[in-house]
Design a protein that fits this description.
about 270 residues, alpha/beta, Rossmann fold, six-stranded mixed sheet, four-stranded antiparallel sheet, 8 helices, binds adenosine-5'-diphosphate, binds magnesium ion, cell membrane, transport, P-loop_NTPase
Length: about 270
C-alpha cells in the first residue's frame, strides 16, 4: 500500500481495526456496523455531518464507551474483552481495570475543548499524568514536559496558565499533554472546531509535524485542506455507517451522493 507516512513496524497488524461496530444508547442506534482499518504510521481523517457517530467511534476506540456489537482491535489486540476457557468452553470476559488501562495507554486523545487544568501552568498540565498515572519522578517528568511543549512550539510558555494562553496555544498544550504519555496512536476529535479561524493553522501545523514523524493518527475534522494534504485514508460517515472511504483523492472525486452533498456544504 502506498502511504505518505507509513513507517516500518515489527508487527504486521493494523493499528486499529473496527469490525462491524455497533453502538446504541438505549433505543438510539448510533453506529450500525462500522468497518475501518487504520495502518500503523498512517493518517485517517473521518469526515461526516454532525450526529453521524464520529465522536462515538473515537470514544469506543479509546474505551470511553462500550460496544453493543462488533469488535475493535488496537495493535492486534481486541479491546475491552478477552477469551477465557470456562468449563471447556471459550467465553468472552470483560477485561479488568488494569488490563483496560494498559490498552488505553496506547492511545492519546485530543478533544474539541482543551480540558486543561486551569490552576496549573502549561508545564504542570503536561507533567500531571506522567507523575500521577505513570508515577514518574518529578525531575524526569519536568524534562519530558519541557520537550513535549517545545515540540508543539511552546518552549517559551512553560509557566503560563491556560487563561494566559490563546485557544490555539491551549490546544497545543493539550496535544503535548497527550504526547507525554507516549501513545502509539493519537485520536483527534475536531481539535480546531472551537478555535478562532486565525488560530486553526498553528494547531494543524503541529498535527502535520506529528504525521510527518510517523505518528498513527485518526482525525475527525471539517478541515478539508488538512484532509487532502495529510490523510492517507478518508472515511466518510453518515447515519452511523461508513458511506464512502478511500485515498484523499476521493475528496475531489466523490462517488456517493451523500458524500458529494457533504463536500459541497463544507468546501
Ligand atoms: P458526531 O461526532 O458525528 O457529531 P456523535 O458520535 O457525537 O456524532 O453522536 C451521534 C449520535 O449519538 C447523536 O445523535 C448523539 O446525540 C448521540 N449520542 C452521543 N453520545 C450519547 C450518549 N452518551 N447518550 C445518548 N446519546 C448519545
Ligand atoms: Mg463529534
Amino acid at each position: 500500500m502506498m502511504s505518505k507516512t507509513t513507517k516500518e513496524t515489527s508487527k504486521n497488524v493494523p493499528a486499529v481495526k473496527a469490525i462491524q461496530v455497533h453502538k446504541a444508547f438505549g433505543d438510539l442506534h448510533v453506529l450500525k456496523g462500522v468497518d475501518m482499518t487504520v495502518e500503523p504510521g498512517s493518517v485517517t481523517v473521518i469526515l461526516g455531518p454532525s450526529g453521524s457517530g464520529k465522536s462515538t467511534l473515537l470514544r469506543l476506540i479509546n474505551q470511553l464507551e462500550t460496544l453493543t456489537g462488533g469488535e475493535i482491535d488496537v495493535d492486534g489486540e481486541m479491546i475491552g474483552y478477552k477469551y477465557v476457557e470456562k468449563k471447556g468452553q471459550r467465553v468472552l470476559q470483560t477485561l479488568n481495570d488494569k488490563e483496560v488501562a494498559a490498552q488505553r495507554a496506547k492511545l492519546g486523545m485530543v478533544f474539541q475543548r482543551f480540558n486543561l487544568f486551569p490552576h496549573m501552568t502549561a508545564l504542570e498540565n503536561v507533567m500531571e499524568a506522567p507523575v500521577h498515572v505513570q508515577h514518574m519522578g518529578k525531575a524526569e517528568a519536568r524534562e519530558l514536559a519541557v520537550r513535549e511543549l517545545q515540540r508543539v512550539g511552546l518552549g517559551e510558555r512553560l509557566d503560563y496558565y491556560p487563561s494566559q494562553l490563546s485557544g490555539g496555544q491551549q490546544q497545543r498544550v493539550a496535544i503535548a499533554r497527550a504526547l507525554a504519555m507516549k501513545p502509539e496512536i493519537m485520536l483527534f476529535d475536531e481539535p480546531t472546531s472551537a478555535l478562532d479561524p486565525e488560530l486553526v493553522g498553528e494547531v494543524l501545523n503541529v498535527m502535520l509535524d506529528l504525521a510527518r514523524e510517523g505518528m498513527t493518527m485518526i482525525v475527525v475534522t471539517h478541515e478539508i485542506g488538512f484532509a487532502r494534504e495529510v490523510a492517507d485514508q478518508i472515511v466518510f460517515m453518515d447515519g452511523g455507517v461508513v458511506v464512502e472511504q478511500g485515498g484523499p483523492e476521493i475528496i475531489d472525486n466523490p462517488t456517493e451522493p451523500r458524500f458529494k452533498d457533504f463536500l459541497q456544504h463544507v468546501l
